[in-house]
Design a protein that fits this description.
The complex is a heterodimer of chains A (79) and B (189). With 79 residues, chain A is mostly helical. Helix content of chain A is 53%, strand content 0%. Chain B contains eight helices and no strands. Helices cover 77% and strands 0% of the residues of chain B. Classes of the chains: A mainly alpha (79), B mainly alpha (189).
Chain lengths: 79, 189
């Protein structure tokens, strides 16, 4: 089954141990965490979960939960 | 012979840097999945914490108390290099940093008349540091198939440039305190 941006958004909330309602599509990523290194930990876990690669240069252009989820979704290999 | 204030500052700087390193690797070790990298990174984390203890103990044996420093080298280095986003980037940043650490400790070891407590502590730490460089280099080599050798080399080169910039800035900022390390035979490797 294809992964959706909503699946990824929910997984972000799980990793960060925050209520799903806090990770809305429009939420700015840095607003989800108290320190930016937490985003690094989340990015590494998401890449493990979905077997994708995200780099520094990708993150430079991303601002919101939806943008990150969409990037990951676009890189997930179609089964 | 008691520690001079400059020496105490440098040893405290090392201690703070080792503490920050252990916190960085500890958080990563917690986030990673089981596997060879999680294994080695956990050991790396433990080593850095141990090194912080070595410096604490060394300063204590020299009759002083560690200075409380707000920032370590890594803070400025990470700011200049940018936060890594994937494991390869984490290891590339680490490789460059560990080489810097070895270089700095070697420089300190070359100071004439160095107190045996300090040289002994550096010798002890250097053994671990060589292993740090080795495991990180091996792990990066194993990642070549996934990330591409060129991309990895470019990432290392980018981080090296950031490190050189921060090191030059640090030397300038603490010029007076670090002058005892600047022996004429100093040469960056």
């Amino acid at each position: 089954m294809a992964v959706t941006t909503d699946d990824i958004r929910r997984r972000m909330a799980e990793i960060l141990e925050i209520p799903e309602a806090r990770a809305t599509p429009d939420t700015v990523l840095t607003d989800l965490v108290s320190d930016s290194f937490r985003l690094v930990e989340m990015a590494i876990e998401l890449q493990d979960d979905y077997d994708v690669i995200i780099g520094q240069s990708d993150m430079a252009d991303l601002r919101t939960v939806e943008q990150l989820a969409e990037l990951i979704r676009s890189r997930v290999a179609v089964p | 012979m008691p520690l001079s204030e400059d020496e105490l500052f440098v040893l405290s700087y090392y201690r703070t840097s080792e503490i920050n390193g252990s916190l960085f690797f500890g958080r990563l070790a917690r986030a990673l999945r089981p596997g060879p990298i999680q294994h080695d990174l956990s050991k790396h984390f433990a080593d850095e914490a141990q090194h912080a203890w070595y410096w604490t103990s060394c300063i204590d044996r020299l009759g002083a108390k560690p200075m409380r420093l707000s920032e370590a080298y890594q803070d400025q280095y990470l700011e200049a290099a940018g936060l890594p986003v994937n494991l390869m980037e984490v290891l590339a940043i680490t490789l460059v940093f560990e080489r810097r650490v070895i270089n700095q400790y070697a420089k300190h070891l070359a100071v004439s008349g160095l107190h045996p407590e300090i040289s002994g502590t550096i010798d002890r730490i250097m053994e671990d540091e060589r292993w740090h460089v080795q495991w990180v280099r091996d792990a990066l080599a194993a990642m070549e198939a996934r990330f591409g050798k060129e991309h990895i080399d470019a990432t290392i080169a980018r981080n090296k440039a950031a490190d050189q910039e921060v090191y030059a800035r640090t030397l300038a900022e603490y010029e007076a305190r670090l002058s005892f390390l600047a022996a004429p035979h100093d040469k960056e490797t």
